Amino acid sequence: MLEIRHLKSLKAIAETGKLGLAAERIFLTQSALSHQIRALETHYDIVLFERSNIGLRFTPAGQRLLDLANELLPLIEKSERDLIRLKSDQSGELRIVLECHTCFDWLTPVMDAFRRAWPEVEVDLVAGFHSDPWHLLHAGKADVVIGGLPDKIKDLQHLALFKFEIMAVLPPDHALRNKSRLLAADFANETLITYPVPETRIDIIRQVLQPANISFTRRTAELTIAIMQLVASRRGIAALPSWGIQNYVEHDYVIAKHIGTSGLWSELYAIGTSEMMARPYAKDLARIIRDVCAGNLKGIKLLAP
Amino acid sequence: MLEIRHLKSLKAIAETGKLGLAAERIFLTQSALSHQIRALETHYDIVLFERSNIGLRFTPAGQRLLDLANELLPLIEKSERDLIRLKSDQSGELRIVLECHTCFDWLTPVMDAFRRAWPEVEVDLVAGFHSDPWHLLHAGKADVVIGGLPDKIKDLQHLALFKFEIMAVLPPDHALRNKSRLLAADFANETLITYPVPETRIDIIRQVLQPANISFTRRTAELTIAIMQLVASRRGIAALPSWGIQNYVEHDYVIAKHIGTSGLWSELYAIGTSEMMARPYAKDLARIIRDVCAGNLKGIKLLAP
DNA sequence: CTTAGGTATGAATTTAATTCAAATTTAACA
DNA sequence: TGTTAAATTTGAATTAAATTCATACCTAAG
């Protein structure tokens, strides 16, 4: 009766605190999860959660099953990795390029986990900025690009990672501080602080400002923290992934606003040649990124695999 | 994709070595198990077993998943026990009566496991022989009888354990040594060696010899080993559970034969008052007996729970 | 070359999980 | 005190998955 699926559900509920979010994370409807949990409760004739309008709280029985999940799921994942390795050459090379600057934030724990899982694979970060990172794949200079999907995906294969919201970052006393979301026009005549990359690689410019023909000043900084300092000292506004700015927002250095009517979302993929993406360790890299990021980055949504 | 159900299947296959037997043990058809395993193999794109006309052998990948099963299933069972305990009083008393003499063989490991699981419950064996053990339940002298179902089950509740085959035991040079199975008539004028209990409590007499009106001599011995020695030294023949005689047969002290055309099978239940059998630790006793015996006694078949 | 004892297969069936479309609950707000 | 928003529940309909049934297939032994 109890199945691994249930344990995964419990884990998702624990991580999100809400049935709806948990359901989304494991690609079910909220209703399905409700039914599933209810079936468990009926089966064991025990209550697993205290429900309220703010979410679920584990009862001791629920906690006991959650403990089981936390004990079992890592073992299961390890076994599944072992199975993959049993049928494949375990060694290889994996040169990673990041399209997106902020991704450095989570890359370190990912690389650590990957090296632990695939000690025989040589992982490297391809250094420097590249105006067309996907080109490096065909040129044999890199194995995987982590970024958005390129327009022409000739001979390239991709694995879905997650999507995240890019939010506008303002100083706390900015004139727009009371709007709940900023529209393209709000950026007119503002100074936009970005990483030093071409405009076509900056989502807010490509997808919001340019289409609306908004004129603005641009200023660049290399590091996220430098950008935040510029914003905090009222030199301009920025647009950054919600998970990259959380700390600064919590400490009231800056405030964050949604962009556009439904938010500005960006999707991340692991992209490589078909030959490379067929390798088990490349698939596993994607899995590890999804795992690590789902655990560490608040507000992201995993894409359907 | 991988579910606990699959792990249970793998365990059953490991224990039986054959798809058909494994399927029976987990109450599925052979076909269902075959489909299930095939689905796993397809999913991971890996072969789990080498099939042959004598059964299945685990490949390294299969073994890896079996290892996972052996690691996980005990943890899961422990959690389920904890859930039961979370909703119930954990203490109580459990006085066990054995209807069947040979059952002492497996009772010790069962009691050990039970004491570990329910340290607060006082377990006792009700000593001595009782001509009507079920009566002790209503008299308040015992809590659970382990034996066959009584004819009148007034106010009694039972939990199914397992069934086993009772086989005839002969000295290796007996005149009937070449028959593959003994019929009632074969016992005519033989000496039957039994435990010292009334004839109505000896299955072969009640179900085979008496209906066929066979006359025979009876001789008794207290212990299984004593009965075996009498048989080996040609003082008579006996009828004992297949699992109780395995050792002696393997060492060629004695030989074993099926009884009747389809074998003589006996079923074992845990029987108690409704009040007692509703208690979680009584249900758990039955589960422990099933588990321990399925693991230790060759040739038994678990009854549907 | 047949049989016995095992597994595999495909279609039909049954069972279980999931979705869909409300309904309900509850706290916060005006 | 009603209204809304954000959550969960519910029951019926749907979809997907597991299981069975009936039979085919395989292989070693006689």
CATH architecture of the largest domain in chain A: 3-Layer(aba) Sandwich
| Shape summary of chain A | globular
- Tell me the total number of β-strands of chain A: 13
Main sheet specs of chain A: 11 strands, mixed
Any idea what the radius of gyration of chain A is?
A: 22 Å
| Largest interface: pair, residues per side | A-B, 24 and 24 residues
CATH superfamily placement of the largest domain in chain A: Periplasmic binding protein-like II
Give the structural class of chain A. Answer: alpha/beta
Which fold name is given in CATH as the topology of the largest domain in chain A? D-Maltodextrin-Binding Protein, domain 2
Count of discrete alpha- or pi-helical segments spanning 4 or more residues of chain A: 11
Helical fraction of chain A equals 40-55%
CATH class of the largest domain in chain A: Alpha Beta
Please identify the oligomeric state: homodimer
Distance linking N and C termini of chain A: 27 Å
Strand content of chain A: 15-25%
The SSE string of chain A, one letter per element, is HHHEEHEHEHEEEEHEHEHEEHHE
Mean pLDDT of chain A: 90
Uncertain segments of chain A of ≥5 residues (pLDDT<50)? none
The total number of structural domains of chain A is 3
